[in-house]
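Chapter review: from sequence to fold.
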Amino acid sequence: MLEGLVQDFQLTLPYFLRRAEQLYGHREIVTRRPDKSFHRHTYADFVSRSKKLAVALGSLGLEPGDRVGTLGWNTYQHLEAYLGVPSSGLVLHTLNPRLHEDDLAYIAGHAEDRVMLVDETLVPVFEKFRERTGVEHAVVVTEGGDVPEGMISYEDLIGSSDEADFEYPDFDENQAAAMCYTSGTTGRPKGALYSHRSTVLHSMMVAMGNTFALSESDCVLPVVPMFHVNAWGLPFASVLVGAKLMMPGPNLDAASLLEDLEQEEVTLTAGVPTVFLAVLQALDAEPERYDLSKLRAMVIGGSAAPKGVIKDYKERHGIEVVHAWGMTEMSPIGTVANLTTEMKKLPEEEQLEYKAKQGYPVPFVEIRARDDERLVPWDGESMGELEVRGPWVASSYYEAPEGDDKFTDDGWFKTGDVVTIDRFGFIKITDRSKDLIKSGGEWISSVELENALMAHPAVSQACVIAIPHEKWDERPLAAIVLREGESATEDELHSHLEVDFARFWLPDAYEFVEAIPMTATGKFQKLKLREQFEGYTSPKS
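The token string follows.
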């Protein structure tokens, strides 16, 4: 083999710090504090403080490969941990504070976190499970407030270290950099362990023109929390290109987000549908109040955005919604629904159909779908479980051999999502494999019914589950949360659906509820909803 004559350059995260230090020191990082005030500083400040954090963690006796947990919001301090922790040879472990304390205890213990960086607003959460972990040092992220006895002030910690003691390390790109655990909807949460190489490559992909097209001229507002799978890679990618960052802190209400978007002239934001649905409702209520003309894209992922929401943002407010899809096991971005040149020639309604799909695979991610018998064709109709592979896709779970059945013998990850793939390579998630409803031998997609129901003007949320049926085995039940001040009847919702769906797809029953159980990542918790309606039988049995 004739080898290329190129330099051996390791792809590691300390490079991000060095590049930011050299080129982007003037760029701004803004954080909304819990009291709604703003903290502002520069990339130069960020690099200096990240270095100090790296040095300070070493003074606590940590060794390369040790895990540093975080319980934090989207703040400048959390960003310092994003780069400072892995740049010291340690592993950044972001924990979701919305999980149950038992899950948090298990996750922190399983990961063997030695240090926990805790936002001052989340100290009560941490104290509920700390004693069940091996955490040796609790560091409270506060800007001057008192810290509980036995804990360390973050500012005191980094203030005790000298930036000059930091040396840019030279380590293998395959060294572990960060980890994140699944939400544990089936069985115990499982850890995905990312390398420096995988994180660098994922960041480069996120910044690419046919993904999110990030550059130094952008202002990025990551609404998706930084404890959700690397905040979809946006903090890393933004630092790589030198984009201004607007960090919302814990303030994810519509009014605060709209103020942030307008005031800081945000060009790209990203988050889950539930948050941006509230933003849409606020915009509709006062359509002339906010100037969002700088916003070029709103990325929605985590679950599907209803087609009506995508259309309303574009037609009523001139905002482009871009679907993205991924998983914890994928770092997480796998597909993005940017229209191709061929699609842009199609009529508006057909373009909308593609925008409502999850999109085509980003560079270096490969996809295929398999049913019980074969790999399904890319015809937009055949359904199968989506399998993926790529340089930032997990090859196994951290210390969890029980998860080995999620990986094929030839190295693909089985996502559990049932999809169709069309001729453009666009995937459309029809359901989770466990959430498909089989009625009379025919499959019904709960996701498609949910999206259609949430397109009804009176419906805020809709979740569809299977209920037993004597003849058909299973039938759909729709749990409905109405918008405040709105009303709808079963007949009205039935009529709304029958325009687009076969009769056997239509729910046998509609139950109007005050709230639908949600997971800590903002998805419908169908297991709990099934428990809520346990024993419920179809009225049409």
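Two observations follow directly from the output. Residues 43-59 form the longest helix (17 residues). Residues 279 and 285 are 10 Å apart (CA to CA).
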